[in-house]
Amino acid sequence: LAWRTPGERRALANVRSKPADNSMETYLPAGAAWYDFWTNERLAGGRTVKQTCPLDRWPLYVRAGSIVPFGPAVSYATEHPDAPYEIRVYPGADAAFTIYEDDNETYDYERGQRATYELQWSDASRTLTVGARRGSFPGLVAGRELIVVLAAPDQNAGPPGSPVAAKTVRYTGSPLEVKFSR
Fold first, then answer.
1. Which pLDDT tens digit goes with each residue over 50-71?
2. Residue 47 near residue 61 (C-beta atoms within 8 A)
3. Contacts with 159 (C-beta within 8 Å, 6 or more apart), sequence order
4. In this predicted structure, what is the pLDDT of residue 57?
5. Any residues with CB less than 8 A from the CB of 75 and at least 6 apart, and which?
6. Which residues have CB under 8 Å from 59's CB, separation 6+?
7. Is 114 exposed, middle or buried (0-12, 13-18, 19+ CB in 10 A)?
8. Are 92 and 65 in contact (CB under 8 A)?
9. What would the 3-class secondary structure string for 101-119 be?
């Protein structure tokens, strides 16, 4: 892949019109483990990995100690406001993520009409803590199903779908914990 500004006329160096093979090398930074998004294979950092990459499966790696929420596939932002969220946890380190919600249509968030809640992963206790909701807005979904899954080799990998060993909870704005056994 290559990019240049529209007004740039000079040729791009080292651009191949056709790759020699369908593979790509990616450097995974040291200091953390990494997960292949498509398979959940856990990889050590501090090295370069090579992966075959057909057009529909670009190399994508997630750092251990990440929380990645997924919403539904929609055609427009307000299509399924009450749809469940899949909360995918990549174990290996503690993690935090803030869920942010607003009406998805107006600029009312600029006047404080929004809500947030914290997700905290404790790797030692294998517990996801969902914090109390802060804020509100007209149309706020009062209760939402959270499908919490742990990344594991050949389980819960790739785009959201039918997670294996998921824990489903109903979040209504009050704090709750989701614990996973070893």
1. 988 888 888 999 999 999 999 9
2. no
3. 70
4. 83
5. none
6. 24, 26, 36, 51, 53
7. middle
8. yes
9. ECCCCCCHHHHCCEEEEEE
> Residue 24: which residues within 8 A CB-CB, separation 6 or more?
50, 51, 53, 59
Amino acid at 89: V
Structure tokens at 88: 């995918």
Torsion of the alpha carbons at 108, 112, 113 and 119, rounded to the nearest 10: 130
Residue carrying the six token digits 């994508």: 60
Reported as a single tens digit per residue, the pLDDT across 11-21 is: 555 555 555 67
| H or E stretch at 170 | strand 167-171
- What is the Cα–Cα distance from 136 to 153, expressed in whole angstroms? 38
Q: Which amino acid is at 182?
A: R
Dist. CA 113–CA 93, nearest whole Å: 33
Q: E strands along 54-143, which residues?
A: 61-63, 66-70, 85-90, 95-101, 114-122, 127-130, 134-136
Locate tokens 């080292």: which residue? Answer: 14
